[in-house]
Design a protein that fits this description.
mainly alpha, about 80 residues
Length: about 80
């Protein structure tokens, strides 16, 4: 009975992919910018409320509205831009 050589996969180090460092850096910068924009407005709420002639609590809803917008748009933008 002849024996045929069976190809086997070599177990070694996984192939290196380039560009992972750039992706992680861009993700970190994006997260920093999004969180910073949410917290910057907190210090400006009293002046914003005064300029718009509304209460500070009502002006605080702007932060909530922005956070919900980011929450809803984030997954769609991620899926849409993941092809680039």
């Amino acid at each position: 009975m002849p024996s045929a050589a069976i190809p086997t996969a070599h177990a070694g180090a996984p192939p290196q992919t380039r560009g992972n460092g750039l992706a992680v850096l861009l993700l970190a910068i994006s997260a920093f910018v999004i969180v910073t924009t949410e917290f910057i407005i907190v210090g400006l709420l009293p002046g914003l409320a005064r300029d718009l002639d509304i209460s500070v609590a009502a002006a605080g809803q702007l932060v909530t509205l922005f956070a919900f917008t980011v929450m809803l748009a984030g997954p769609f933008l991620t899926a849409m831009l993941s092809h680039f």
